[in-house]
């Protein structure tokens, strides 16, 4: 029998052709996905103050809330911060490298602040400088009374092919979900070496009179990670603490007293915007809640900062901010629009690899798109595919007491590649100058499960299409 002439064979050809057409459409059209993962939505509550994660270390004047961050431009310094409550005590840090018995001392400073009816403990900040790259250091604080010992590992020397793994956490707060997020980050087998934190730390301002006791409890909660690896801080709206009704009119008062950053090293004039280099990455931190219009200090700083980025030295250009520029949830919708209008053309011009933001309590990853053609009269105001543009990732899903953002704009915009209302964290694992593996991990899964992932191709060294859903012409 001649198969070619069989009517059944003919109908099979039609079916196969139809299936190929569907497959083709799936590849050519935007495959943007709204996850169908179902998560029970409950009211989130903060862990009670007597929870073990908030335990006060024992001993007279024992240091608590110990945290570290990068202390200079290149990673040879660390800012060590901690709080003592019984008396001021010593601001010295004793430190020594794993390879040496010689113990050194660094001298820090002490600050305190009052906020309405709250008086802070004695907040110590000490910058430890001239460290060797890629070395494990032990350090001790609380030298006069109860001392406590921790350790950190300095980053490798800056270079274009240096592998390095960043964790991404945002809008963490101090609920049971926050604790799950932190635990999942700690147990993730990809092993983040430094956290890029995209703002909204303690959510103390959700309490009456912004009860700053919740800033202290948050400091004790995250110590188990941030005393051992640096967290790179971004200011969110919950750091503003502007409350004129109770006489508190200095924005960011608790945040700036508790969290120091090395902003002067990048010629910034305020701690809210600055940059650091770490391994093969250049990280620019911006402030959604400081002036950024033309002629403002932040605008001027960024305009001068972007041309300084040498992609031969640090191929990966990463921007952190709190309020996302692209967000298809109904929460905080278009809040990032004014900054987008001002800064997006630069992000495209300087080929930023990825922009991480928080604020929206959910997860979203965009395609590489830009919306920079509009000039008031030409009507060109639709995001378009743009291989020079960053990927925009919203990672505000740390698990704070305000709960999940579940309400999304419909239909999902074409530029939105993946979105899901779940708590979690992400990992950005730089392999070399061309490739980085990115993964998002929801709290409901096992530690190694990647609920969303993407291979990033570097925009300077390998600027090919790296979309997970889009085939572009
Ligand atoms: Fe926020």
TrEMBL record:
Keyword NADP applies: no
Q: Which InterPro entries match?
A: Calcineurin-like_PHP, Metallo-depent_PP-like, MPP_PAP, PAPs-like, PAPs_C, PAPs_N, Purple_acid_Pase-like_N
Question: Where would I find the Purple acid phosphatase N-terminal domain in this sequence?
Answer: 63-154
User: Which Gene3D superfamilies does this UniProt record tie to the protein?
Assistant: 3.60.21.10, Purple acid phosphatase-like, N-terminal
* Enzyme kind, highest EC tier: hydrolase
Q: Could you say which cofactors this protein requires?
A: Fe cation; Zn(2+)
Xref: Pfam families: Metallophos (PF00149), Metallophos_C (PF14008), Pur_ac_phosph_N (PF16656)
* Annotated EC: 3.1.3.2
Q: Which UniProt keywords apply?
A: Glycoprotein, Hydrolase, Iron, Metal-binding, Signal, Zinc
Q: What is stated as this protein's family in its record?
A: Belongs to the metallophosphoesterase superfamily. Purple acid phosphatase family.
What name is this protein filed under? Purple acid phosphatase
Q: Which source organism does the UniProt entry give?
A: Senna tora
